[in-house]
Amino acid sequence: MTTYTGEDKIQRCSWCSATEQYTQYHDTEWGFPVDDDRRLFEKLCLESFQSGLSWRTILEKRDNFRNAFDNFEIEKMARYTENDVERLVQDAGIIRHKGKITAVINNAQRAQELITKEGSLAAYFWRFEPEEKSTYEAVSTSVESTEISKQLKKMGWKFVGPTTVYSFMQAMGLVNDHHPDCHLKPKIDAIKAQYKRPT
């Protein structure tokens, strides 16, 4: 991954140059630390739906996903029935993949169990924050994402492979994978230096 300079003369990670929506997501969300359980669950669900597809597809449909899945409220999704599965499979506004739909409903139930055990999803995931890399390297998995994936699968979660989990780690700020020349890299490093990790 490299960087590009936009019309505003700001240097950003090159991947976000594809669409204005990407740029907005890059500038306001990607890599910023998140500790709200609903937002964390939403991000992990969307990464699960993204598997095998482009992130652009997910971003374009994100509002539809939120409407269809009760804004990813864990308690509501955990109570979904077969009628909800059928409703979602018929919803043209989202990714109508029955396996992924049933997986995220299952994951809502597993999330409730994890929150009961750990206090919050945030407390669990932030435990896996890795050391800051000494050199920049674009990767799709890590030791931590592999371990999280292994643990979640053991707890019964689905569609949470190491690559999906690593994308989630990037999205929620567990790792700051902005390119060293991107204007947000030092800004997010500074935010994380002051950030109080959930326990």
Automatic annotation (TrEMBL):
Organism whose genome encodes this protein: Marinomonas balearica
**Entry keyword annotation includes Translocase:** no
The UniProt record gives the binding positions of Zn(2+) as C13, H26, H178, C182
Please give the Pfam families that the UniProt record associates with this protein. Answer: Adenine_glyco
Q: What is this protein called?
A: DNA-3-methyladenine glycosylase I
Q: What InterPro entries does the record tag this protein with?
A: Adenine_glyco (IPR005019), DNA-3mA_glycosylase (IPR052891), DNA_glycosylase (IPR011257)
Which GO terms label this protein's molecular function in UniProt?
DNA-3-methyladenine glycosylase activity; metal ion binding
What UniProt keywords are attached to this protein's entry? Metal-binding, Zinc
Q: Which terms does the UniProt entry file under GO BP?
A: base-excision repair
